[in-house]
Structure formats: structure tokens, C-alpha cells
Amino acid sequence: MAEKTLLQGIREALGEEMERDERVWVLGEDVGKKGGVFLVTEGLYDRFGEARVLDTPLAESSIVGVAIGAAMNGTLPVAEIQFADFIHPAFDQIVSEAARIRYRSNGDFSCPLVIRAPFGGGVHGGLYHSQSVEAYYAHVPGLKVVIPSTPEDAKGLLKSSIRDPDPVMFFEHKKTYRLIKGEVPDGDYATPLGKAAVRREGASLSCFAWGLMAHYCMQAAEELEADGVSVEVIDLRTLKPLDKETILASVRKTARALVVYEDNLTGGFGAEVAAIIAQEAFEHLDAPVVRVAAPDVPAMPFNKPQEDAFMPSPERIAAEMRKLAAY
Amino acid sequence: MATAKETRHAALGLEPDRLLTMYRQMVLARAVDRRMWVLNRQGKAPFVISGQGHEAIQVAAASCMRPGIDWLCPYYRDLPFCLALGMTALEFMLAVFAKADDPNSGARQMPSHFGSDRLRIITSSSVVGTQVVHAVGVAYASKMRGLDEVSVTCIGDGGTSQGDWHESMNWAGIHKLPFICIVQDNDYAISVPHRLQMGVDTVARRAEGYGVAGEAVDGGDLLASYEAMQRAVERARAGQGATLISAKVARFTSHSSDDDQRRYRPQAELEALLRRDPIERFRNYLLDEGVLLEADDERIQQECTADVDEAVTAAEAAESPRPEDLLKHVYADG
Q: Do strands A181-184 and A2-5 pair parallel, antiparallel, or not at all (unpaired)?
């Protein structure tokens, strides 16, 4: 076991899966010789060759559409969309096609593919290199949506995603790529989809997040510990399928719920988490469910003051935690 | 060396038996298609979309393929294609009547959204152009795996305006894929005429720009269609790359049962269409060559009608899907 970055966890999963199963291949813009703009696929081209580490034309709909066709002909494609912000031209292929192949063929065809995309802000990416797009896809039956926040999970969840018989959207917070380091078990292991991780046990309130926000919630929770407020932090890890049991069990214990997400407030995936808690744990609540999210502006600006104002910060999260604990 | 007396079909290596098989496939497709419209008027088929007038190119193309080995990513006018690949009239009628045993989709989709794992006809949606990209992916996988398979897809002239179509042709050219795109150009995309769809007389002109071979063919002429498709298949199987076939065809019916083409096509144009009936043209050829006798033709027509009658009776009596199965097949585990 060695300390690695989240990015290295992803790279290791790709390399090991391609080694283990020759049906696995990757495609995307710049994934070949360059190894991707974030270098996630670095080294794979030399190990596995051009056919299995394919630099594609700059056309997202076809990256996904080709992966769908190849998935129906006996291969396991892992498509990289260079930034989640650029995934929208492929929305139709993901939502109308990949997600519905099994359903619309009454189970005769399936579409085992993974679509990886870096998302999220805080890196001066501006409007078009910072977005959170998970809510669009978590809305769609037929897709799975996975967001790792630790290096160990990045490897284990990607392996599960590649081995999954259905299409998986695998979103990687780009700020966590090198910022987040942790122990990554050597060799083969798969982290099951649909299981949240309790990152920190607590009694005063429950906090739910994913991606970078899971880390910010941990920082905020540690700050509150000094004030004697004990916060339970739950990293959802997979938004679809969602681990409702873990969410509800935590709320039944603490009676207070805070949902933190980096996406715009309105219609973000945290709204669904809040609705589930309100509907299924209402009688256990001592306070309203609170959402902490980005404001409803189109996207994250490039300049630092406005970028900071957009992103939920550990300080803002801590302040909301205090208010909720005191309610 | 060809002699002056050699027939067109002999020059293509086609025996009379194969010609008659193709003729029967066209006749059956027309009979099934016409019956759909009757069922629609009877209130038994909620939706009809048609392949009438497109039979020659589709049957010719299917006859160049190996069902269960080669792949088809179809579009909604490919009834003759699918029947020629081996789908039965009953299998199709189960979709028309929206019955549980419809092999295309379990009646989840509208009729003519074809799909068959047995025949390697890949499930298709209603979103025009998406299937072309899948066909490229299928071909890429075949090539990567070293499999001798050809991936064929069909689309209308309107569909070639889609970004997915352009992206697909680009991929096919880059990787010299065993891929064939058949554009069934019937001059209309619902009501929008060819002249407002593209600035070229035939989309085959674009082939060179994508780095693929281009064939412009009279898609109402079965033998010409066969020749173009056979060349494309040989090219694909020899590793020489992809082909874009543009086949001119006649759309005999309105776009669908929810359209009335008399609103946007002049009467004279609609009347002129009838002179372009691909089945009539092939029948005349076969009669002239003595491959088909009038008596045989009558028998074929009757047999196809009987096939359709039988399929309709069985499909109408079949079970409807159950509401509780609504939730099935969202994911592999449920």
C-alpha cells in the first residue's frame, strides 16, 4: 500500500483493467501519446497501443456514440470527455441512446461503457472548465453516476464501473486530482457501486456531499469539533444508485441534515437528497433540511473573488453547520 | 468476356433463384407495409411509418450481407431490409399491434424501430442520425478484434444534415472502417425538399471530403443497387475502407400516418412517382428475361398475401405487455 494521488488511483484502475481484460479500451481527445490534458491516461498508449488508447476527432457526440456501438460489439470502452463542460454535445447519445439501449430492446442489447469526465471548479477554469453536470445524468434512469473523492475509491469505483454491465458516468473532481492523496491498496479490488461512505461519525448533525465538497465538509466538521458539535460526514460516492439506507439511518440518528453541493442550488442533486430526507425521515427531523450550494448564476467566473463567491467553502459550510446545530 | 447477350444479372453473378428470392422479399415487404396502413385506418395500428418505394436498394443491400454476422443499424424505413435479413412478417406485426412478444422492443417503441439480436439488427431510437455513430463504433470494434464483419447503416437524405452523420463519416474515413452508410434519398425529409436540405445533387459527392468511397446509384433499380452494395461490401471486407452509397428512391407514402404529403407535394409529382415503382421495374425485368412467368408472379403475390394474413391473425391474438413489466430492463439487475 502506498500513498497516491486521486489521479494515480484512476490511472492504476485503467491500466490494471486493460491488463486484465483485453476488451477494455479507452478513447477520447488527447488520451494517446499526450496521456490526456490532465495526464490521467499517461503511459497507457505505450503499454497498449493506438487501437486501445485512441485519440479521437474533436467531436464529443461521436466519442460517446462510437463507444456505444463498440460496447454493443463485444468491447468495454472507457470514453474520456476532456471536461464535463464539453459533454453537452454528447447529451443525446448518453441520454437517448446509451441509457435506453437495454430498456428499448426489452433486454436484448446492453451498453457496458464508462464515460469519464473531470468536473468541478476552484481551479480558475471559468465558465467552461468548472461546471458540475452530475444532476443532468442522475436524473436519467438507465445510467449510473459515480463520483469518487479519495484515491482508494477512485481506483476501486472505476474498476467496478468498468465491470458494470450498464453505462456509468464517472465524474472526477479536477481539483482533487493532485490535491487529494491517500493510501491506495496494491493490486485488484473493486469498491461496490451504490454504497455511501461514512467518513466521520457524529451525533449532532448529518452532512451529505460528494467530490471536493466531501473534503470541505470534513474540514468544516473538524472546525466544529472544537466547539463541541459532532458532525457526521457522509460521502455519497455514487449518486445513482443512491444509498438511501445510509442517508436515512444517519438522519434518524442526528435529526439534522445538511446537503452540500457545488452545482447551482436549484435542481442540483442535493435537492433530491433533501427531498428524500423530507419525505422519508420527516418525523425524525428536529430542523429543516438545509442545502448549501452555488448560487443560481450560469456558471463559475474566472476571476478569484467571484469564483470564491460561487464555490461553497469550508468556512461557509461551517457557518451553516453551526446555524443548523443551534436550530 | 461478356457477350452482347449476357444479361445484367448474369454479369453480376446472380442466378435466377436469387433473383426470385429478392423479388419475393420485395413483394412481401410491400404487402406487409400496405397492410399496416389498412390496419391504421381500421384503428388497429396507432402509428405507421413506411418503406414503400425503397424496396430495391434495401433488399439488394440485405442480399449482400450475412445475417447474424454483419450488422445493421437501421432507420425507420427499413422494413424491407429487415424482412430480407430474416425478420418474419409475424415478428413485425407483433410490433404493429404492440404485443409483448414483439422481438424489436417488446412493444416499448413505436413500430419500425427495428432491433434483433439474432439478426444483428441494432436497436434504434427515433432521433435521426444517432444510429450512424453506433455503426461506426461497431465497425471499429470489429476491426480492433480482427473480426470479418461489415457494419451497415441506413439514413434518409434529411438525416445527413445531422452533426452525428458528419462526425460518423469522418471517423469512417480516418480508420478505413468496414462500414457502409446507405443514404436513402427520397427527396423529402417529412416536407422539406432536397434543395433545402443540401447544396449538392447527391450526398455521395461528399464522400471524397470524408476519405471514403462514394457511390451514387438509382436505388429503385435492384440490380444497380446490388452492384453498388456488392462493391462496397468487397471493399469493406478487403480492408479498403468505408463506402457512402447515395440511393435515389421514391417515397410513395406520406412521411408517416400522421402526415399528408398532398399538402406539400404537387399532384403531378405524386403521379410521376408511381412510374418509379421499384417492384414494378424489377418485375418487368424478370418477365422480359423469362426469369419470372406471369403465373409464378401471381402465386408469389398470393403467398405473400397469405403470409401477411397469417401474421396479422396471430399478432392480433397475441398477448399485450403487462403493466408490471414497465419497470423491467432498466438495468441488468432489474
A: antiparallel
pLDDT digits over B227-276, tens only?
999 999 999 999 999 999 999 999 999 999 999 999 999 999 999 998 99
Contact B138 A72 (CB under 8 A): yes
Q: What residues pair up with B180 in beta bridges, in sequence order?
A: B152, B243
Is the complex ipTM higher than 0.90? yes
What is the domain range of residue A296? 197-326
Is B136 an 8 Å CB contact of chain A? yes
Residue from the list A25, A65, A100 with its beta carbon closest to the beta carbon of B164:
A65
pLDDT of residue B3: 54
Q: How many whole angstroms separate alpha carbon B138 and alpha carbon B115?
A: 15
* B299 Cβ under 8 Å from any chain A Cβ: no
Angle, vertex CA A202, rays to CA A197 and CA A203, nearest 5? 135
Q: What are phi and psi of B83, to 5 degrees?
A: -65, -40
Structural domain contains residue B300? yes
CB atoms within 10 A of CB B306: 11
Report how many Cβ contacts below 8 Å link chain A to chain B.
Answer: 138
Q: Nearest C-alpha of chain A: how many angstroms from B39?
A: 24
A139 classed as catalytic: no
Q: What is the CATH number of the domain that holds A312?
A: 3.40.50.920
CB-CB neighbors (< 8 A) of A68 in chain B: 133-134, 137
Q: Is residue B91 part of a domain?
A: yes
Residue A211 and residue A168 in one domain:
no
CATH number at residue A45: 3.40.50.970
What pLDDT shows up at residue A1? 79
Beta-strand relationship, A76-80 and A24-28: parallel
B332 at A interface, C-beta within 8 A: yes
> Is A192 within the bounds of a domain?
no
Q: Number of folded domains in chain A?
A: 2
Residue A218 has pLDDT above 80, yes or no: yes
Average pLDDT over residues B40-56: 96
- pLDDT 10s digits, A238-278: 999 999 999 999 999 999 999 999 999 999 999 999 999 99
| pLDDT tens sequence across B112-168 | 999 999 999 999 999 999 999 999 999 999 999 999 999 999 999 999 999 999 999
Please check whether residues A49 and A139 belong to one and the same domain.
Answer: yes
Q: How many domains does one find in chain B?
A: 1
Distance, CA of A60 to chain centre: 19
Q: Residues B78-102: pLDDT tens digits? A: 999 999 999 999 999 999 999 999 9
Taking contacts as CB-CB distances below 8 angstroms, the residues of chain A near B145 are: 73-75
How far is B60 from B42, CA to CA, in rounded Å? Answer: 32
User: A237 with A124, same domain?
Assistant: no
CA B118 – CA B130 distance, rounded (Å):
22
Domain boundary among A143, A163, A184: A184
CATH of residue B166's domain is 3.40.50.970
